[in-house]
Amino acid sequence: MKDFNNKVVVITGAGSGIGRALAIEFSKLGAQLALNDYNQKALLETVEFLNNDSVFYDVFDVSNRNSVFGFAEKVTSRYDVVDVVVNNAGIAMNGEGFEEIDLDKFERVMQVNFNGALYGSRAFIPYLLKRPEASLVNIASVYGLTGIAWGEAYVASKFAVNGLTQSLSQTYKETNLSVHCVYPGGIKTNITKNSIDYTKEADVFDELFLIHTPEFAAKTIVKGIRKNKKRIIIGYDGKMIEYLSRLAPVRGCNLVNNKLKPARDAYKKTMQAK
Q1: What is the pTM of this model?
Q2: Strands 231-234 and 134-139
Q3: Considering only 2-6, 29-33, 200-204, which range has the smallest mean pLDDT?
Q4: Topology of the domain covering 8-273
Q5: Which residues contact 94 (CB under 8 A, 6 or more apart)?
Q6: Is 183 tagged catalytic?
Q7: How far apart are CA 4 and CA 28, in angstroms?
């Protein structure tokens, strides 16, 4: 898809970070927007920033299947068609030893990150298939390509998004629907502060590893859609991890974890001292 003018673009998790940046970028390109976030205040800030009275938005949790399917019905009722869907909504949780992990929180991460992409894909694909050309974009992570210690919930959810999207890409490769999986590296978003068990000690990860802006990520995603890239890697760190995961999966994983270890140890030390 080359031209987004007057195309209907759906974005979940549009209240901040990559989702907000995507809303702004697509708006500049003339798209009509249907936005979601579970945080009403944040979503309204995005809508206000866009300064566009025609923006449709709905506040709900993407882990709620009925809400997602209801959103699809509302969007098509409003615009008749859907051209692009970006399943972006996601959350994280701070690291702790797996033997101590709160399984309710683990499952919550899976529900938002994976089920959100699952429900969004299933709800909107029937509408996307009706268009001459359409795009489905699921936001995974470079940590959906390699494991990291103390990140089991987030990593598992993003591996699941990756697997789902790769399968969908094969299922619909002979149709009008292009399916894209996005693998961001370190993006300066609020995902750490919005994690379900945020403590200020976790900011050490942001300070060291969040490198690229959401605006850079949004432009990279739009460029990837235009070039019909099935795998959209964001950032030089993302490209390095993706390369290592293919070239030397075990050694590459060890190298990534060794890079993360100082920040993880500092976090563990401060948490143990509390």
Answers
A1: 0.89
A2: unpaired
A3: 200-204
A4: Rossmann fold (3.40.50)
A5: 192, 195, 197, 198, 199, 202, 267
A6: no
A7: 10
Is beta strand 8-11 parallel, antiparallel or unpaired with respect to 84-87?
Answer: parallel
The region that residue 15 occupies, defined by phi over 0 for left and psi between -120 and 50 for alpha, beta otherwise, is: alpha
Query: Which tokens is 85 given?
Result: 């869907």
Distance CA 98, CA 150 (A): 7
The pLDDT, as a whole number, for residue 201 is 45
From the CB of residue 73, how many other CB atoms can be counted at a distance below 10 Å? Answer: 11
- For the chain, the distance separating the N- and C-terminal CA atoms, rounded to the nearest angstrom, is 52
DSSP 113: I
Residues 209, 213, 217, 222, Cα dihedral to 10°: -170
Scored b (16 or more CB within 10 A) or e, 93-105 reads: bbbbeeeeeeeeb
Would you place residue 274 in the very low, low, confident or very high pLDDT band (cuts 50, 70, 90)?
A: low
Q: Which of 89, 172, 90, 185 is nearest to 135 (CA)?
A: 172
How far apart are alpha carbons 183 and 235 in whole angstroms?
9
Could you tell me if 166 and 216 are in contact, meaning their C-beta atoms sit under 8 angstroms apart? no
> CB-based contacts of 46: which residues, under 8 Å, 6+ apart?
14, 15, 16, 19, 20, 23, 35, 37, 57
Please identify which of the residues 57, 119, 154, 267 carries the catalytic annotation.
154
127 pLDDT more than 90:
yes
- The average pLDDT across 235-246 equals 82
